[in-house]
Design brief:
This protein is mainly alpha-helical and about 170 residues long. Helix content is about 65%, strand content about 5%. Strands 1-2 form a two-stranded antiparallel sheet.
Length: about 170
């Protein structure tokens, strides 16, 4: 039997390649396109490889979208995508399927990393707010003539999904 057409799977494979090339904005577009094709009934929700192994294209789409959103700093959106990936995979394949277990484990790792990033952001924001309040109380004027030098060093703690988790592809 000839394999069924799977345009969403093609978009997800492009997403994975672009992500490896650190072209996350383009990769996110392909993940979104894959989900749109599935939603509109133009691509299957479940795909099967030649050996009869099923995978949830829909769950992989949500997961890959989450990875790209996380890479771009869209943390709240990424949380939703990871949650959707876990729920959809369980619905499509059952809670004990190997893909469900893998997506669950990787999604939990992503959610944990997001929580750490959000905590760091909040601490940084709170510290900046505190400094501004102290400056206002001391009467220090911050304007165009008295601007402080900004740090130009970028944080090395930017999410690197290549170390944390793998994107899923469709065979």
């Amino acid at each position: 039997q000839a394999p069924r057409s799977n345009p969403a799977g093609t978009h997800l494979n492009l997403c994975a390649v672009l992500s490896k090339l650190k072209r996350h904005d383009e990769a996110m577009i392909h993940a979104t396109s894959a989900l749109s094709l599935i939603h509109n009934g133009k691509s299957p929700t479940i795909a099967s490889d030649g050996a009869g192994n099923n995978s949830s294209v829909r769950a992989i789409g949500h997961y890959n979208l989450g990875v790209e959103q996380e890479s771009l700093g869209l943390l709240t959106a990424a949380e939703g995508s990871y949650q959707s990936a876990m729920a959809v995979c369980t619905l499509d394949l059952g809670s004990n399927h190997s893909l469900t277990v893998s997506i669950r484990n990787n999604s939990y790792a992503g959610l944990k990393a997001i929580e750490k990033r959000k905590t760091r952001r909040k601490k940084k924001h709170d510290l900046k707010k505190k400094k501004n309040r102290e400056n206002m109380e001391s009467g220090e004027k911050i304007g165009p003539d008295t601007q402080r030098k900004k740090k130009t060093k970028k944080s090395s703690k930017i999410f690197d999904h290549s170390k944390a988790k793998a994107l899923f592809t469709i065979n």
